[in-house]
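Progress note, project year one: complex with coenzyme A.
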Amino acid sequence: MVSMFKRWLRGRLGISENADDDDADEDAATYGSLVRKGRHVALRAHVEANREAFQRWYADEEIASLLRHDLEPLSDWQSRGYFDSFVLPLSARGLCFAIHERKTKRLLGTTALTDKMRTGIGDSALFRIVIGEKDSWGRGYGTEATRLVLEEAFQVLGFSEVRLEVFGHNERALKAYERVGFRVTGEHSEWVPRRQINLRVIEMAIAADEFARHGEHLREGHRGPASYLLKGQREERKAARAAKRLRRAEKKARRFSHRSAAEVPDLPNPPSTTD
Ligand SMILES: CC(C)(COP(=O)(O)OP(=O)(O)OC[C@H]1O[C@@H](n2cnc3c(N)ncnc32)[C@H](O)[C@@H]1OP(=O)(O)O)[C@@H](O)C(=O)NCCC(=O)NCCS
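Model obtained:
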């Protein structure tokens, strides 16, 4: 009876059948709402309880040597500040995700889309990922999590391109990114004064159509409730911004109304209710 009701409700809300079978309410409260899930890992919203693990990952020397441009681990207060002022707010906006193992729900890492910028083909975001639990490296989890983030970026968040930077010595990451379809777009070197070494930094990118072509033989991940919810909120914000622009333009037009018709600026289109 309950499952029939859930199926009916999903139908009414336009949520796919597969969206929430491992995202019961109690899971969302404990582990964070489900954003998207693949075969082995799930992306979830970050919750405060993730802070302790996050701080442990960022205090690790080996992880720092693969991740940070100064190659130094973060201190306790630095990682706390990073988590509280960057990770949690970005996660609430649907741009940063906790990576969990699906079977055990264990928290494994974190991933994010940051540094949005406008390019010739549309909006581009910078991809970041850390599988912080090192016993989970090399099991395909990072590759799958990367693919799930790209699905979210292109299918839900409206990005046209995702780019990244990876150190030349990070072979595991390079392999994972190539497998997902990223191509090398350039490279540069960075001087690390404390270590007196030059870091080789490889730049990679993937466009939405490249990802679609590359992944057409792969099984897609399933979206979770948080992905639908955040898309709704983004659309509401977009409509509110359009309405504000319209009000501003109308006000301006009223100021110009005593002038000749030719001098009145064009009004933007009213906000669409269907997009
Ligand atoms: C980079 C990272 C996300 C990759 O995730 P992962 O789950 O470990 O990687 P996967 O198992 O999905 O894929 C790793 C690939 O490297 C290969 N690999 C595994 N161990 C390797 C090693 N020691 N050296 C070289 N390649 C290795 C695997 O065979 C696999 O390639 P394949 O799919 O062609 O077989 C993860 O290791 C990580 O978070 N590392 C620390 C932080 C970091 O480097 N972040 C990225 C910054 S750009």
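The beta strands are 34-37, 41-44, 96-101, 107-119, 122-131, 161-167, 183-192, 197-207, 222-223.
The CA atoms of residues 181 and 210 lie 7 Å apart.
No further modelling is planned for this target in the current period.
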